[in-house]
Design a protein that fits this description.
Radius of gyration: 21 Å
Strand order of the largest sheet: 1-2-4-3
Shape: elongated
Number of helices: 3
Largest sheet: 4 strands, mixed
Structural class: alpha+beta
Order of helices and strands: HHEHEEE
């Protein structure tokens, strides 16, 4: 899901590989069960995260269909990252103009986990929880000029 997993997953696998294997059957079964549980939680979280990003992209697509230019929509780092840091083509040298979520600038339209000052809510959608359990409310916000 993120570049940090490129480091964390192999580090976790190395620690697990270096751990001594228990000699008795009950601790072996417990170690195997705990490893399976960690894997299932990871898969459930990854699947929910991907479904959540799909929901954010759908909200972004709705704004674009309304005629709002992509450069006016801040859809978050995960989605903007591919547009902020594209793999350069041979002749591509210009900036994409897509907003960076970590900046202090409030874009004309922002997709966020909560409303914040200087914006109004123009839409909501649900971010799914792991294994389909629960949801989190997400907001499509429009900057209000004061």
């Amino acid at each position: 899901n993120d570049r940090y997993f490129l480091l964390m997953v192999p580090a976790g696998a190395l620690i697990l590989a270096m751990a001594p294997i228990p000699e008795k059957l009950p601790p072996q079964i417990a170690a195997f069960a705990m490893t399976v549980a960690m894997g299932l939680m990871s898969l459930g979280g990854t699947y929910a995260y991907q479904r959540g990003l799909t929901a954010v992209m759908a909200a972004r697509d709705v704004l674009e269909k309304r005629g709002i230019p992509r450069s006016a929509i801040d859809a978050g780092y995960e989605l903007n990252g591919l547009e902020l840091y594209p793999f350069p083509r041979e002749t591509e040298t210009d900036d994409s103009g897509v907003p960076m979520i970590t900046s202090s600038k409030v874009s004309d339209y922002t997709i966020a986990a909560r409303p914040f000052a200087g914006t109004e809510v123009i839409g909501t959608f649900s971010w799914p929880g792991p294994f389909g359990l629960g949801t989190r409310q997400m907001y499509v916000l429009r900057r209000v000029d004061r």
